[in-house]
């Protein structure tokens, strides 16, 4: 059975309450149950942290044995060279996901430090982006 880890960065614990006009009204925990039902053949894990070091530690811990990471690094996408280095340093392929279309938002969101070390990116398709990323990882 394949093992895929979904990792959400800062402020994504507020999904369902934070700016629903951008991020929707569903919590990630509720959506995660939908993902588990949609992918019964996959062992899915979910981790969220607002702390950069905790995200790095999680990637280091699971990055040599997991079959894939789906990563929404939140604002760390645009600021964290350390996160890019962690992704580059492990064997697990990573798909970058963003719920909103970051290219239709503020200009500082247009640059991703992690894009160059990710297998691909899914941007602006809402929570469906996570399911698409899982599908892409399973197609490997």
Task: Give a short overview.
This protein has five helices and five strands. It is of the alpha/beta class and 140 residues long.
Main β sheet profile: 5 strands, parallel
What is the residue-mean pLDDT, rounded to a whole number? 93
Number of strands: 5
Number of domains: 1
- CATH class category name: Alpha Beta
What is the annotated CATH architecture?
Answer: 3-Layer(aba) Sandwich
Classified in CATH, the superfamily is: Dehydroquinase, class II
**Termini separation:** 14 Å
Q: Helical element count?
A: 5
Spatial order of the strands in the main sheet? 2-1-3-4-5
- Tell me the radius of gyration: 14 Å
CATH topology group: Rossmann fold
Describe this protein's structure.
By secondary structure, the protein is of the alpha/beta class. It has a single domain (2-138), classed as Rossmann fold, CATH 3.40.50.9100. Helices cover 32% and strands 20% of the residues. The chain has helices at 20-23, 28-38, 52-62, 81-88, 128-138, and strands spanning 2-8, 42-48, 68-72, 94-98, 120-123. The chain has a five-stranded parallel beta sheet with strand order 2-1-3-4-5, with helices on both faces. Helix 3 runs parallel beside helix 4. The longest helix is centred in the N-terminal third of the chain and has 11 residues, at 28-38. The mean pLDDT is 93.
């Amino acid at each position: 059975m394949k093992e895929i880890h979904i990792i959400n960065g800062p402020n994504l614990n507020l999904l369902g309450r934070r700016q629903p006009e951008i991020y929707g009204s569903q919590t990630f925990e509720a959506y995660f149950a939908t993902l588990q039902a949609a992918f019964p053949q996959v062992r899915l894990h979910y981790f969220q942290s607002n702390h950069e070091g905790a995200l790095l530690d999680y990637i280091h811990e699971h990055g040599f044995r997991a079959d894939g990471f789906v990563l929404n690094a939140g604002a760390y996408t645009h600021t964290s060279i350390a996160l890019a280095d962690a992704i580059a340093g492990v064997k697990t392929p990573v798909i970058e996901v963003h719920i909103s279309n970051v290219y239709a938002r503020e200009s500082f969101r247009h640059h991703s430090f992690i894009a160059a070390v990710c297998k691909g990116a899914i941007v602006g398709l809402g929570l469906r982006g996570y399911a698409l990323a899982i599908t892409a990882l399973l197609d490997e």
